[in-house]
Amino acid sequence: MRSRRLSVRQAARRRALPSVLAQAGHKYDYDLVIIGCGVGGHGAALHAVESGLRVAIIEGHDIGGTCVNRGCVPSKALLAASGRVRELQNTMHLKSMGIQVGSVSFERQPIADHATNLASTIQNNLKRSLEAIGVDILIGSGKLTGPHTIKYNLPGRVDVGGEVTARDIIIATGSVPFVPPGIPIDGKTVFTSDHALKLEWVPNWVAIIGSGYIGLEFSDVYTALGSEVTFIEAMESLMPGFDKEIAKLAQRILINPRKIDYHTGVLATKVTPGVPGVKPVLVELTDFKTKQVVDTLEVDAVLVATGRAPFTQGLNLAAVGAETDRRGFIPVNEKMQVLGKDGKVVPHVYCIGDANGKYMLAHAASAQGISAVENMCGRPHELNHLSVPAACFTHPEVSFVGLTEEAAREAATAGGFGSQVAVVKTSFKANSKALAEKEGEGMAKMIYRKDTGEILGVHIFGLHAADLIHEASNAVATRQTVNDIKFNVHAHPTLSEVLDELFKGAHVKAGKPAKAPAAMDTAKQPVAA
Ligand SMILES: Cc1cc2nc3c(=O)[nH]c(=O)nc-3n(C[C@H](O)[C@H](O)[C@H](O)COP(=O)(O)OP(=O)(O)OC[C@H]3O[C@@H](n4cnc5c(N)ncnc54)[C@H](O)[C@@H]3O)c2cc1C
Ligand SMILES: NC(=O)c1ccc[n+]([C@@H]2O[C@H](COP(=O)([O-])OP(=O)(O)OC[C@H]3O[C@@H](n4cnc5c(N)ncnc54)[C@H](O)[C@@H]3O)[C@@H](O)[C@H]2O)c1
């Protein structure tokens, strides 16, 4: 288990609690025990209490997990502060609106403190929100000992821990950074996001291995604070996980004008750590296809951002007849029920969030937790993962829901409706609000079916893209077609009109009028003042 930061006093006090509950006539100490108190476990716990369940949550490291302590929250604090620096240093942009500023400077440590303080505030809020609704927080590392029993303890502490029984169990143990072989992490010159978020220094030249979410967001932070960045990406182009057209545009705005260069189609096969300010870090690059060493870079630091690995060791899944897959993920079905070695559902055991590898995002973890609770309460539920939005919080932002154009065309061809796929696009350049902000660089695109109006994917690159995507993701989640949403009215002037234009620009063959919800037909209409 990783190092621990939790106070153990409260856990010691609670050791007697489960047996008291069992004595009160319940078959199990709890209706639900959740292993792991990240955002997934937290979301599941809130919904379980709401559904009338008696809940305990076991946490072995720090409440809030990755998102709150080493992920979404501190990274967005760094992006907010460094983004402000970038904005104030962009004198041309400010001048075009008649603004002049003097020299802009920043202090590294207060920016780092902003991230740490925010994480600790959110961690406290999260803990209090559980305590307030009567969720028992049990401190220790959880391990299955039977179909309904979980042992928890802190290594080396005999006074902390115990065994609890539960009707249902949710495993929500999350993930840790994945580091490819040949890359030793020293935490100073060669590090992962866990270290980078502490912003202990701002290297002059940093190589970032991987141009996914973490790589992109940190390139935004580092270049705003004055670093030069070199991307090392295994795939043929940068941002391989994104829609190709959006990635191309993002590269034009987020990469090319900044102090960033890149090597694509290469793996960082060997990294030799350095000494800050004394000895550079050496990075050996190997061609992805030929496997020949092609170059060696000398940089001040290396950030390894090559994905995340599930944290599922030590859970003793064998106690319930299950095992992880080859990569360490716990196999689940669409109801988040764990599948045993025989491929059959393990009764009463669920796995949510990064540990099942379905979609490694905070809100996906929490939505899966809610879905698991629905299922254990006898209300069958399956989360449509294609309706889960994703966003990368660069300046400007990238967001999407559903399939990329490439994946949609492939799926359509396989499904026999290839000729029905259509694409519509709008630009931020035509949007009054974006132009008022002098932020016209950006586009939205929608991939849809001409015959049915089904939305297959929506992608946005531009100002506040992460907030704008929800109109599309909610439409996908509620199975609304293009024709259902194209008559909706958007306030003017707002960025949301970029999507309004997008929906209105789509042409669906079997056009049908917008539906008015029955309850609204008779409701009193507001009268303009
Ligand atoms: C730098 C970075 C930035 C990110 N930014 C975003 C973002 O902006 N938006 C977004 O949606 N996602 C973001 N993510 C991804 C997001 O953090 C994860 O998808 C999310 O945290 C997964 O939640 P989880 O509950 O599954 O797991 P985790 O948050 O990892 O929580 C799991 C918890 O379980 C505990 N645990 C593990 N094993 C045991 C055990 N045996 N017993 C008891 N406890 C145990 C761990 O200590 C941990 O607290 C980011 C990730 C990183 C690294
Ligand atoms: N804004 C957000 O929602 C957000 C932010 C950060 C992280 N996250 C989550 O955290 C997870 C991890 O993020 P990430 O950026 O590390 O992973 P990622 O999967 O997004 O990107 C990893 C990139 O590294 C490349 N790569 C892998 N191995 C390589 C190697 N040996 N050499 C060169 N390139 C290599 C891959 O081709 C890929 O482009 C993601 O799954 C993401 O969902 C989300």
UniProtKB/TrEMBL annotation:
Please list the residue ranges annotated as the FAD/NAD(P)-binding domain.
30-369
Q: Where is the active site?
A: H492 (proton acceptor)
Q: Which cofactor does it need?
A: FAD
What keywords are assigned to this protein? Answer: Disulfide bond, FAD, Flavoprotein, NAD, Nucleotide-binding, Oxidoreductase, Redox-active center
- Domain called Pyridine nucleotide-disulphide oxidoreductase dimerisation: residue spans: 388-501
Residue positions annotated to bind FAD are: K76, G142, T173, G174, S175, D354, M360, L361, A362, H363
Q: Which GO terms describe its cellular component?
A: mitochondrion; oxoglutarate dehydrogenase complex
Tell me what this protein is called: Dihydrolipoyl dehydrogenase
Q: What GO annotations for molecular function exist for this entry?
A: dihydrolipoyl dehydrogenase (NADH) activity; flavin adenine dinucleotide binding
In the UniProt record, does the keyword Disulfide bond occur? yes
**From what organism does this protein derive?**
Elliptochloris bilobata
Q: Which PANTHER family does this UniProt record tie to the protein?
A: DIHYDROLIPOYL DEHYDROGENASE, MITOCHONDRIAL, DISULFIDE OXIDOREDUCTASE
What Gene Ontology biological process does one annotation of this record name?
2-oxoglutarate metabolic process
- Classify the source by domain of life: Eukaryota
Q: How is the cofactor bound?
A: Binds 1 FAD per subunit.
Q: Which PROSITE patterns match?
A: PYRIDINE_REDOX_1
Write down the InterPro entries for this protein, in alphabetical order: Class-I_Pyr_Nuc-Dis_Oxidored (IPR050151), FAD/NAD-bd_sf (IPR036188), FAD/NAD-binding_dom (IPR023753), FAD/NAD-linked_Rdtase_dimer_sf (IPR016156), Pyr_nuc-diS_OxRdtase (IPR001100), Pyr_nucl-diS_OxRdtase_dimer (IPR004099), Pyr_OxRdtase_I_AS (IPR012999)
Q: Which family does it belong to?
A: Belongs to the class-I pyridine nucleotide-disulfide oxidoreductase family.
Does the entry annotate any disulfide bonds, and if so which pairs? Answer: C67-C72
Phylogenetic lineage: Eukaryota, Viridiplantae, Chlorophyta, core chlorophytes, Trebouxiophyceae
State where NAD(+) binds.
G210, S211, G212, Y213, I214, G215, L216, E217, E233, G307
